[in-house]
From TrEMBL:
Pfam families: FMN_bind_2. Gene3D superfamilies: Electron Transport, Fmn-binding Protein, Chain A (2.30.110.10). InterPro entries: Split_barrel_FMN-bd (IPR012349), TR_PAI2-type (IPR007396). It comes from Thiothrix caldifontis. This is Negative transcriptional regulator, PaiB family. Signal peptide: none annotated. PANTHER family: PROTEASE SYNTHASE AND SPORULATION PROTEIN PAI 2 (PTHR35802).
């Protein structure tokens, strides 16, 4: 990912928090020179080895890409918003403020039924939570045979927080004000991110 230095995020704890908060990501592989992507939820593990895990439908050919070439990319995106040059005091051009993390690593494909059962249970619990009516998965082994698991050992993290760091303090203030006044949830979230991030630098 192209990351100018003023947009680079290096705080590892923040990057991992970001992945957990935006865990519905994009798994990217290349097969015969052609990119292929699946949009799926991931689980981040922060034990001795940093990993991402998930599963694909067995009908999805991407698991075969993983088996053939274990180098993969997972992309996570956070809030984003259009930035108008009319919000600047000086000259400028239209742009986009956004946050994104790219994860590079080596993957292993998993067919083990016990692992898949645990994966589905953990994923469901993560999103269902501890509410009284939380759905609890109960799959016969035959259904689990319809999915294929994977685990990515993370080798590299790249994070880009493009939040007007390259503009003057006055321009940053104007951008935040304009975004805060928007009716869009994404815009207001970007304004909040700008306020928190720029305050740290």
């Amino acid at each position: 990912m192209y990351i100018p230095q003023h947009f680079a995020e290096h705080d590892r704890a923040e990057i991992l928090r970001f992945i957990q908060a935006n865990a519905f990501g994009t798994l990217v592989t290349v097969e015969a020179g052609v990119p292929f992507a699946s949009h799926i939820p991931f689980l981040l593990e922060q034990g001795g080895t940093l990993t991402l895990s998930g599963h694909l439908a067995k009908a999805n050919p991407q698991w075969q890409h993983l088996a053939a070439n274990p180098q993969v990319l997972a992309i996570f995106q956070g809030a984003h918003a259009y930035i108008s040059p009319t919000w600047y005091e000086g000259a400028g051009v239209p742009t986009w403020n956004y946050t994104a993390v790219h994860v590079y690593g080596t993957v292993r494909v998993i067919h083990d039924t016990a692992w898949l059962q645990t994966q589905v249970e953990r994923l469901s619990h993560h999103y269902e939570g501890d509410t009284p009516n939380a759905w609890i998965p109960s799959y016969p082994a035959k259904l689990l045979e319809a999915i294929v698991g994977f685990e990515i050992t993370i080798e590299s993290l790249q994070a880009k927080y493009k939040l007007s760091q390259n503009r003057s303090a006055a321009d940053q203030h104007n951008v935040m004000q304009a975004l805060e006044a928007s009716s869009g949830e994404n815009e207001r979230e970007v304004a909040d991110l700008m306020a928190k991030h720029l305050a740290k630098h």
